[in-house]
TrEMBL record:
Major localisation: membrane
Taxonomic lineage from the root: Bacteria, Pseudomonadati, Pseudomonadota, Alphaproteobacteria, Sphingomonadales
Membrane topology: Multi-pass membrane protein
Record Pfam families: LptF_LptG (PF03739)
Intracellular or extracellular location(s): Cell membrane
Protein name: LPS export ABC transporter permease LptG
Keywords per UniProt: Cell membrane, Membrane, Transmembrane, Transmembrane helix
Organism: Sandarakinorhabdus cyanobacteriorum
NCBIfam families hit by this protein: LptG_lptG
Keyword Membrane applies: yes
Domain of life: Bacteria
Length: 362
């Protein structure tokens, strides 16, 4: 009933698995980074003032993204190679003769994969998010020198009931919020009644205090000017100050508070919640790979079907990645709840892997 009846065998198989994971991720990163650098080096060097040292800066920002994307694939490939090697050398037969079950053989690999998943999560949230945000900003200025950060002053669209608010600039937070170049599309029953334009707006009890106002009446086509106007609405300042969030650029521990802020501002958070949960389920998928690739470990190698078994294991692994991306896309469209989008592929393929293993080997 012990999880690891033989510590020697457990350490032997886990070490073999981890060495192959490291070999695959290093090899894939070097190859893919080289190909990517060949396509982007011309753009980097074309920017004024850039030298060969900026190519290394690009590599340092792009490599974390490659590792983040291909580490789960590396775990799958390492699983297949490890289990196929054990099967080819009849070591699986020896393990079974020593009294180990199929789950005993896979347990060290799954525990090692859990360690890989934890390392992958830490890498994604501590390194890849920062590198992705910096690289995106650098690419937006066509690899020129990044300007120093300036005070937040962003354009914003907000909906309050039937009305639409647009501000060219949003400065400050809370009661000190100021909107510049404000346009309010006053609609009733989805019919535009008037367009309210103001040079600035500040929060006021029951709505917003508008300054230097122009009122355009749609029905009459008339234009009226006022120095000030109190526009009554349920729209609050935080609806303007909650900026759009890219989950790829924000670590999980910062993403959850921002999701709560978006929810409090009345904005939809389903896409962000699905991405937040996937930050956990994505790296954890490494634990599934030994289970899905287990079909390559069992069956007699001399039967001539080892290659077929390896292909089946690879197909199961890639089927999981396809299902995972499909469900995440459905979550982004709002078709399925965030928790289902992030976790249903993991649970489904966990059950599939267990069912195949129990029916064929246990």
């Amino acid at each position: 009933m012990a999880l690891f009846p033989s510590r020697t065998i457990a350490w032997y198989t886990a070490r073999m698995f981890l060495i192959r994971v490291a070999a695959f991720i290093i090899g894939l990163t070097v190859i893919l980074q080289s190909l990517d650098l060949l396509s982007e080096s011309g753009k980097v060097l074309a920017a004024a003032g850039n030298t060969e040292s900026d190519l290394w800066v690009y590599v340092s920002l792009r490599a974390p993204q490659i590792v983040q994307l291909f580490l789960p694939f590396s775990v799958l490939l390492a699983t297949l190679v490890t289990l196929a090697t054990l099967n080819q050398n009849s070591e699986v037969v020896i393990f079974k003769a020593a009294g180990l079950s199929a789950h005993h053989i896979l347990a060290p690999l799954m525990l090692a994969a859990l360690g890989v998943a934890v390392a992958n999560f830490a890498w994604n949230e501590r390194i890849a998010t920062r590198a992705s945000a910096t690289l995106k900003a650098w690419q937006e200025v066509e690899y020129r020198k990044l300007p120093k950060a300036t005070a937040a002053k962003t354009q914003s669209w907000v909906r309050g009931g039937d009305d639409l608010f647009h501000a060219e600039a949003v400065i400050g937070r809370g009661a000190t919020t100021r909107l510049d170049d404000v346009t309010i599309y006053d609609r009733r029953g989805n019919r535009l009644v008037q367009v309210v334009m103001a040079a600035s707006a500040t929060p006021a009890p029951g709505g917003w205090q508008l300054n230097k106002v122009r009122l355009f009446d749609v029905a009459s086509g008339g234009l009226e000017r006022r120095d000030q106007l109190l526009f009554t609405t349920d729209v609050v300042p935080r609806q303007f100050t909650t900026a759009s969030i890219n989950p790829n650029f924000v670590p999980l521990w910062d993403l959850w508070p921002q999701i709560a802020e978006q929810r409090a501002a009345g904005k939809s958070t389903d896409v962000l919640e699905a991405a937040a949960w996937h930050k956990i389920s994505g790296p954890l998928s490494a634990v599934l790979m030994p289970l899905l690739g287990a079909v390559a470990a069992f069956g007699l190698a001399r039967s001539g079907k080892l290659f077929v078994r390896a292909v089946i294991g690879m197909a199961l692994g890639f089927a999981f990645f396809v299902a995972d991306n499909f469900m995440l896309a459905m979550g982004n469209f709002g078709t399925v709840p965030p928790l289902m989008a992030a976790w249903s592929p993991f649970i489904l393929f966990l059950l599939i892997g267990e069912a195949v293993l129990i029916r064929t080997e246990e």
